[in-house]
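Good morning N.,

You mentioned wanting to compare the apo and holo forms, so I went ahead and generated the holo version with pyridoxal-5'-phosphate. This is what I fed in:
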Amino acid sequence: MSKALALLGGKPIRTRPFTSWPIFGRPEERGLLRVLRSGKWGKLAGSEVSTFENRFATMHGCRHGVGVVNGTVSLRIALMAAGIRAEDEVIVPCYTFLSTASAVVEANAVPIFADIDLETFNLDPRSVEAVLTPRTKALIPVHFAGQPADMRSLMDIAKKHNLVVIEDAAHAHGASTRNRPAGSLGHVASFSFQSSKNLTCGEGGLLITNDETMAEACRSIHNCGRIPSGAWYEHHVISGNYRLGEFQGAILNCQLERLESQTKTRDRNGQHLASRIAQLPGIHPQKRPPDCTRHSYHLFMLRVDGRAFGAPRAAVIKALQAEGVPCSGGYVLSLHHQPLFQKKAFHPFLPIASTKQNYAKTRCPNSDLICREQCVWLEQSLLLGSRADMDDIGRAFEKIHENREGLNAWFNNQPM
Ligand SMILES: Cc1ncc(COP(=O)(O)O)c(C=O)c1O
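and this is what came out, ligand included:
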């Protein structure tokens, strides 16, 4: 194949753009106009959000859905509804977006970080067991990148230690394990519909559960502490207005129609790309456990072992970008290394979380390794293209590998 790398003046593999995101059309336009003209723009007056709540919950075999303003607030509401109190410890992965852990701080509890498995990039049950204490009250597994976490092992641990399990399913719309949807496997699950997500309305979130008491608590907390039998200005618990709006509800109802076929496409393409690039030395796509019946590929993730590949991750990313493949290295730090946690900059609200944990002592070597030198992310919309698109990405990796010596020489001459 391979001519000179695009980074070094050669012709890029890819000049056409990949699929852009979001995808929308006439149904979304009609839905927005319908809400606009109805004059019912808030959840309590209209029916778009409640329709979506029911549809999304039912799709997961859950009886209850509660639409909220984003997937950060939904995590905090789940923690509050689960009865998590000051000084309670909540185990979270150290490789995740900020919200999984900051929601715990905001709920006035203490996030405890556990490491991920180096091959699946999901919470490692052995690491969870290592950080359990008598104060542990909950666990938040993230289905990272859209691949369901090892819920069988995690639920066993939870049962043994009487923990509430809150699934952070922000990446996992449409994913499943043993044909059971991600989000239906714990006690309550939180989804995000923020712009980048596989199901989006710009900003939004949702809680689903089969637990009646949990659902009632979530509904009350997201609606200013109201209760069904109470008067409008009667407020029963600390809470806020976290209700999702009707315009978002209308968009979500349309996007949901697209989700099934988009998820199938992403999963098919993701598996094809993974099997192609896994042939290269030092390239390790996220390992798919046999239990995973559907990966939603919010991200296509891989590790580049620079020594085995012949060029470091940073150089590979530059080369891929030059070949026309948008990508990044993802998180630069494990969460516990973020200044927020190192400095425990939680005040003024939360003196308890601030005093209880010394994050300088947290050890998560797998997460540190992939942040520092190995991880590469490709975003979900790339996987919505054709098989030929995947082959272009595969060819870009192969071309870079064939030209690794030149790439290394270039990289070593770059100013630091
Ligand atoms: C794993 C994870 N959890 C929670 C969130 C928070 O969702 P939101 O941005 O809707 O608040 C995100 C968002 O990126 C996420 O990636």
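The first strand starts at residue 64 and ends at 68.

Happy to go through it together on a call whenever suits you.

Best,
F.
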